[in-house]
Design a protein that fits this description.
With 196 residues, the chain is mainly α. Helices cover 80% and strands 0% of the residues. The chain is built from 8 helices and no strands. It is globular.
Length: 196
């Protein structure tokens, strides 16, 4: 909510502390229920499409990470059928444009028709495709580097052992940070389109 308030900049350029102060505790959770509820089908669509594509593309590309990236982008684009309306409504609620999901949906449909629920689809795709590519490529590269570093210091059997849960969380978090940091300008554009 704070990020959306800052990126939407509805009243003026707003900093972090000003956004937190103006939102209050209740305002910080605006749109949370909708976002959490719709995240389930979005995640199911994304991951089932990702897994399906990855299985079919594994032998298609000579460079294995490329099949993973294409699968990740395909899964993310498929989940956009749920993600874009969810983000549109959630961000408008977070920006204070609507007080409830039902009011938001009715108003959007009345003003823009069904297509209005997909306002910002292109900007969302332009943010998410590089995000997914960066996320999965960096994650897979970290796996490769870890094997090389492990090989240099441990016995050969350790090289083939899977990452621990802590290592997965660490490298997944670092990959997410890199992808998020590099795609933030796209996210700002998407937020401004969705909240305008």
């Amino acid at each position: 909510t704070v990020r959306t308030t800052m990126q939407a900049a509805l009243h003026s350029e707003t900093g972090f502390y000003e956004s937190v102060k103006s939102l209050g505790v209740r305002g910080a959770f605006r749109g949370f229920g909708l976002s959490a509820l719709w995240a389930c089908p979005q995640g199911a669509i994304r991951l089932s499409c990702y897994d399906s594509c990855k299985v079919k593309l594994v032998d298609t590309f000579d460079y294995t990470p490329l099949s993973i990236v294409v699968s990740a982008i395909a899964g993310d684009m498929a989940s956009s059928i749920v993600k874009v309306p969810r983000e549109l409504i959630t961000q408008r609620m977070q920006a204070g444009q609507y007080l409830s999901t039902s009011v938001a949906v009715k108003q959007i449909l009345a003003e823009d028709g069904f297509a209005g629920l997909f306002r910002g689809y292109l900007s969302t795709s332009l943010r998410d495709a590089p995000f997914m590519a960066l996320l999965f490529l960096s994650y897979e590269q970290f796996k490769t580097w870890k094997v090389r570093l492990t090989f240099a210091y441990d016995e050969p059997g350790r090289v083939l052992s899977p990452w621990s849960d802590a290592e997965t969380v660490l490298w997944g978090g670092i990959s997410g940070f890199i992808a998020g940091f590099l795609t933030t300008p796209f996210d700002v554009v998407k937020t401004r389109i969705m909240t305008s």
